[in-house]
Amino acid sequence: MHTFLPIAYFENEFVPFENAKLSIATHALHYGTAAFGGMRGIPNPENPKQILLFRLNRHCQRLSQSAKFLNYELSPEKLQQIIIDFVQKNKPTQSFYIRPLVYSSGLGIAPRLHNIEKNFFVYGLEMGDYLSPDGISCRISSWTRQEDRSFPLRGKISAAYITSALAKTEAVESGFDEAILMNSQGKVCEATGMNIFIVRNSKLITPGFEQDILEGITRDSILTLARNLDIPTIERPIDKSELFIADEVFLCGTAAKIAPVKQIETFKLSSHRPITEKLRDKLFAITENKDPQYADWVYVVDLP
């Protein structure tokens, strides 16, 4: 059972979470004409009257860009202020996850993006580890990631996640924790809601944007951290066979943070993960606002 934060932002006002309800005729429900974001927040370990949000401005920028695919103009500044107000009204006391979503709120039945109402809501829930920090098992999915020529993969569009849902269920029901999706060229793409990195010969490697991946914010953060730590980084296509012989593999995302992979299909991976651990420790310290070098990545919300 999820523990939801008590207040939601819905139809331009803050209301009790249980009162934020949509019509069964809502356009986005039928056609996937929605885009969402996700960000984590934690109470400041040094000050319980503060909440720390990781890369708030970047998350709001990406959601604003995603909304453009829906013919919806929603500024990052407006999104950011609503999220700050949302946090101040809820006063969370545990690690939590914020889910903002823009959507076609009209009740029409034609699949379109023009001449239909749009709206925006925010809710949140308490969240600990999404995946085991000790290591997870993955299978190669039988489902293929969409292509940008047929789907706007630069946006976090809700309709795209049917592939993720199919792949996740296939993985779990066949005895694995997570799925790795290949793209239409047969190259490694991403997991069901996370980007993927491998380490080979002390080099950190991840698929580039041309491989039909989501422009992950945690992925971007890890690449920046690695370069500043003098870890060589490479963005290039990754073959499936490379996964099985990699020195380290990990998944990353807002919900998953950095999740090491211990097994892919029948191949066991090493439990010695020096680069994964170094990056995970660094990222954890930053999210707790304990690294002055990356203080601009953490937005501090003062609670009333």
UniProtKB/TrEMBL annotation:
Q: Name one GO molecular function term.
A: L-isoleucine-2-oxoglutarate transaminase activity
Q: Which chemical reaction does it catalyze?
A: L-isoleucine + 2-oxoglutarate = (S)-3-methyl-2-oxopentanoate + L-glutamate; L-leucine + 2-oxoglutarate = 4-methyl-2-oxopentanoate + L-glutamate; L-valine + 2-oxoglutarate = 3-methyl-2-oxobutanoate + L-glutamate
Biological process, per Gene Ontology? isoleucine biosynthetic process; L-leucine biosynthetic process; L-valine biosynthetic process
Asked if the keyword Secreted belongs to this entry, the reply reads no
User: Which cofactors, if any, are listed as required?
Assistant: pyridoxal 5'-phosphate
Under InterPro entries, the record lists: Aminotrans_IV (IPR001544), Aminotrans_IV_CS (IPR018300), Aminotransferase-like (IPR036038), B_amino_transI (IPR005785), BCAT-like_C (IPR043132), BCAT-like_N (IPR043131), BCAT_family (IPR033939), Class-IV_PLP-Dep_Aminotrnsfr (IPR050571)
Tell me which SUPFAM superfamilies the record gives: D-aminoacid aminotransferase-like PLP-dependent enzymes
PROSITE patterns in UniProt: AA_TRANSFER_CLASS_4
Its annotated pathway? Answer: Amino-acid biosynthesis; L-valine biosynthesis; L-valine from pyruvate: step 4/4; Amino-acid biosynthesis; L-leucine biosynthesis; L-leucine from 3-methyl-2-oxobutanoate: step 4/4; Amino-acid biosynthesis; L-isoleucine biosynthesis; L-isoleucine from 2-oxobutanoate: step 4/4
EC identifiers of the protein: 2.6.1.42
Give the superkingdom in one word: Bacteria
Q: Which Gene3D superfamilies match?
A: 3.30.470.10, D-amino Acid Aminotransferase, subunit A, domain 2
What keywords does the record list, in alphabetical order?
Amino-acid biosynthesis, Aminotransferase, Branched-chain amino acid biosynthesis, Pyridoxal phosphate, Transferase
Member of which family? Belongs to the class-IV pyridoxal-phosphate-dependent aminotransferase family.
**Record NCBIfam families:** ilvE_I, PRK06606.1
PANTHER family xref list: AMINO-ACID AMINOTRANSFERASE, BRANCHED-CHAIN-AMINO-ACID AMINOTRANSFERASE-RELATED
Stated role: Acts on leucine, isoleucine and valine.
- Name of the protein this chain belongs to: Branched-chain-amino-acid aminotransferase
Q: Which organism is it from?
A: Crocosphaera chwakensis CCY0110
